[in-house]
Amino acid sequence: MTKLSVNINKIATLRNSRGGDIPNVVQAAKDIQNFGAEGITIHPRPDERHIRYQDARDLKSVVHTEYNIEGNPIKKFMDLVLEVEPTQVTLVPDAEDAITSNAGWNTIKHKEFLSEVITEFKNHGIRTSIFVDPDPVMIEGAVATGTDRIELYTESYAVHFAKGNLNGVRPYAEAARLATKLGLGVNAGHDLNLENLRYFKEQLPTLLEVSIGHALISESLYLGLENVVQMYLERLK
Ligand SMILES: CC(=O)[C@@H](O)[C@H](O)COP(=O)(O)O
Ligand SMILES: NCC(=O)COP(=O)(O)O
């Protein structure tokens, strides 16, 4: 079974555009779970331009599905995650000024750093995942860090799929096979949408979780949030 974790950063972005508290991210998380989503993902960035650190704390008591916090493990982020103790932390090597996540970890170069951070989170009972490109060397490097899971960075798949190139999924299918063989759980995310999700899921039978935000919230403007959550769940069956 592949779980749907809804990334609610975009709901916070909309709220922040006007100040105030509309839409309310805590209510959105409650509703999204009531609509059937199996997880809530947030990705607080150091400048808090999307989801805020306080949102992460406020969400703790309402997320009764899988709570996934993504981000670059700078000290401030690590302290937040250790305080909130979500189900899972996903480590993403995003630069402070990056518009969105745009690269996976070099798990060889950063092996020591990742191993230390992962050990700290695991000692607190938090499942770890690291954001990686579908590169066998990086998957093998991920195993050496001690992480529980990887999150495959799916932008390249989404770009190929949009151009009609179904072969873009091949590196992902191979990466997932290798990761599973080596004992890693496999998550995926970035630019997944209603069009490209089903095929991706079909090609990666061991896929445990997808986190989806930008497309899902955008599609909800036209189709409604409840309806769209149901449509994603249907594609993951
Ligand atoms: C790791 C990843 O791909 C997502 O966390 C993505 O960065 C979504 O966050 P934004 O919607 O804030 O770009
Ligand atoms: N980890 C990926 C994520 O949370 C959402 O990415 P996107 O759907 O906003 O591109």
From TrEMBL:
<keyword id="KW-0963">Cytoplasm</keyword>
<feature type="binding site">
    <location>
        <position position="7"/>
    </location>
    <ligand>
        <name>3-amino-2-oxopropyl phosphate</name>
    </ligand>
</feature>
<feature type="site" description="Transition state stabilizer">
    <location>
        <position position="151"/>
    </location>
</feature>
<comment type="similarity">
    <text>Belongs to the PNP synthase family.</text>
</comment>
<protein>
    <recommendedName>
        <fullName>Pyridoxine 5'-phosphate synthase</fullName>
        <ecNumber>2.6.99.2</ecNumber>
    </recommendedName>
</protein>
<dbReference type="GO" id="GO:0033856">
    <property type="term" value="F:pyridoxine 5'-phosphate synthase activity"/>
</dbReference>
<keyword id="KW-0808">Transferase</keyword>
<comment type="function">
    <text>Catalyzes the complicated ring closure reaction between the two acyclic compounds 1-deoxy-D-xylulose-5-phosphate (DXP) and 3-amino-2-oxopropyl phosphate (1-amino-acetone-3-phosphate or AAP) to form pyridoxine 5'-phosphate (PNP) and inorganic phosphate.</text>
</comment>
<feature type="binding site">
    <location>
        <position position="100"/>
    </location>
    <ligand>
        <name>1-deoxy-D-xylulose 5-phosphate</name>
    </ligand>
</feature>
<keyword id="KW-0664">Pyridoxine biosynthesis</keyword>
<feature type="active site" description="Proton acceptor">
    <location>
        <position position="43"/>
    </location>
</feature>
<dbReference type="GO" id="GO:0008615">
    <property type="term" value="P:pyridoxine biosynthetic process"/>
</dbReference>
<feature type="binding site">
    <location>
        <position position="50"/>
    </location>
    <ligand>
        <name>1-deoxy-D-xylulose 5-phosphate</name>
    </ligand>
</feature>
<comment type="pathway">
    <text>Cofactor biosynthesis; pyridoxine 5'-phosphate biosynthesis; pyridoxine 5'-phosphate from D-erythrose 4-phosphate: step 5/5.</text>
</comment>
<feature type="active site" description="Proton acceptor">
    <location>
        <position position="70"/>
    </location>
</feature>
<comment type="subunit">
    <text>Homooctamer; tetramer of dimers.</text>
</comment>
<feature type="binding site">
    <location>
        <position position="18"/>
    </location>
    <ligand>
        <name>3-amino-2-oxopropyl phosphate</name>
    </ligand>
</feature>
<dbReference type="InterPro" id="IPR004569">
    <property type="entry name" value="PyrdxlP_synth_PdxJ"/>
</dbReference>
<dbReference type="GO" id="GO:0005829">
    <property type="term" value="C:cytosol"/>
</dbReference>
<feature type="active site" description="Proton donor">
    <location>
        <position position="190"/>
    </location>
</feature>
<dbReference type="InterPro" id="IPR036130">
    <property type="entry name" value="Pyridoxine-5'_phos_synth"/>
</dbReference>
<feature type="binding site">
    <location>
        <position position="191"/>
    </location>
    <ligand>
        <name>3-amino-2-oxopropyl phosphate</name>
    </ligand>
</feature>
<dbReference type="InterPro" id="IPR013785">
    <property type="entry name" value="Aldolase_TIM"/>
</dbReference>
<feature type="binding site">
    <location>
        <position position="45"/>
    </location>
    <ligand>
        <name>1-deoxy-D-xylulose 5-phosphate</name>
    </ligand>
</feature>
<dbReference type="Pfam" id="PF03740">
    <property type="entry name" value="PdxJ"/>
</dbReference>
<feature type="binding site">
    <location>
        <begin position="213"/>
        <end position="214"/>
    </location>
    <ligand>
        <name>3-amino-2-oxopropyl phosphate</name>
    </ligand>
</feature>
